[in-house]
Predict the structure of Thioredoxin Y, chloroplastic.
Amino acid sequence: MAVCSTAVAVPSSCNLGRAISLEPSKLSASKWLQSTPLRHPPTRSRRLSALPQRRIIPKVAAKKQTFSSFDELLEKSDKPVLVDFYATWCGPCQFMVPILEEVSEKLKDKIQVVKIDTEKYTSIANQYQIEALPTFIIFRDGKPCDRFEGAMPAHALIQRIESVLAVPQ
């Protein structure tokens, strides 16, 4: 094992604001590392660590409605529709679940919130050229009037929706 005596600057993003010096005299463990063979963990623990970690995703009670087509949903809605294009495996999409519930509750008189799973409804995702998740499209009178991507806090989403709805068409 070779140790060099080069000063390494810590990036300013770490907020340490000083350099670290790696000198052989200050590394007391270097001789121990040279003489001690590396031990592998038991095979059993290696297998367990290779398993993917499960995340607990809260179950959300949603009001499911069935329409013969997405276009019918947009045409029959008496309010503008906020469509969340998502996927079950998408982390930011899962982050948005409680936020969309909050937005739906606060703006229930102004807008209808609809979620579309892009893996189940690929034709709709392709029709609206969904390339990033989550993607939100606000429809007014059956036509898209605003589109934005990415997770955001509830207050920012509410502000965005209200600003779009304030613009007359």
